[in-house]
TrEMBL record:
Name of this chain's protein: ATP/GTP-binding protein
Gene3D superfamilies: P-loop containing nucleotide triphosphate hydrolases
Organism: Actinoallomurus acaciae
Family recorded in the similarity comment: Belongs to the GPN-loop GTPase family.
Upper classification of the organism: Bacteria, Bacillati, Actinomycetota, Actinomycetes, Streptosporangiales
Cited InterPro entries: Gliding_Motility_GTPase (IPR052705), Gpn (IPR004130), P-loop_NTPase (IPR027417)
Alphabetized Pfam families for the sequence: ATP_bind_1
Keywords associated with the record: GTP-binding, Hydrolase, Nucleotide-binding
Residues spanning the membrane: none
Keyword Nucleotide-binding in annotation: yes
Length: 193
């Protein structure tokens, strides 16, 4: 049997999970990760009063103050995805530049109840030329919008995929990651031409 480097050293891919405060990034990383995820969740304290808006997410009691980290292996393709969840609060956005170094792509989580919370993430990846897709996290009780309605609201390029997901569900999270990988692979010939 011939030796293949991919049998020993799988392709390692860094993926960012981004979006606004409270859209489900930590939950997504936790649902997708095959390992116990690392997270830097801290209790929301009185110090955030007047700084962080809890409008629409009044029951939120913790927040990511640095990053979330998880891993998922796609054995049949010899790929290991390293997932980095970004902090959503504006005061921690300075970390996004560091976290995005070496990232192949990103998932921007969106909450249709507070769609404006993902504008900065979309702008961030567009300005840095990092391919991404938008994953609408379908919260219980939220109105359902069609992908074309979300695309129009976000003024997205037609080439940016939009998928619906449930960040709490492992199957949904991994399906979203597979959609991103397909998008990244489809973009390779266009970028090299």
């Amino acid at each position: 049997m011939a030796y293949k480097e991919s049998d020993v050293f799988p392709t390692q891919v860094k993926i960012l999970i981004a979006g606004g405060f409270g859209v489900g990034k930590t939950t997504f990383v936790g649902a997708a990760s095959e390992i116990e995820p690392l997270n830097t969740e801290e209790l929301i304290t009185a110090a955030s009063i007047g700084v962080d808006s809890l409008s629409g997410i009044e029951n939120k009691s913790t927040t990511t103050v640095a990053l979330d980290f998880g891993r998922i292996t796609i054995e049949q393709h010899g790929i290991v995805l390293y997932l980095f969840g970004t902090p959503g609060q504006e005061r921690f956005w300075f970390m996004w530049d560091e976290l995005s170094a070496g990232a192949l792509g990103a998932i921007v989580l969106a909450d249709t109840r507070r769609l404006q919370a993902c504008f900065e993430a979309v702008d961030f990846f567009e300005h840095r030329g990092i391919d991404f897709l938008v994953a609408v996290n379908e919260f219980d009780g939220a109105f359902h919008y069609e992908p074309d309605e979300v695309r129009a609201a976000l003024e997205l390029d037609p080439r940016v995929p939009i998928v619906m997901c449930d960040a709490r569900d492992t199957r949904s999270a991994t399906t979203t990651l597979r959609s991103l990988i397909r998008h990244l692979l489809a973009a390779v010939p266009a970028q090299s031409a």
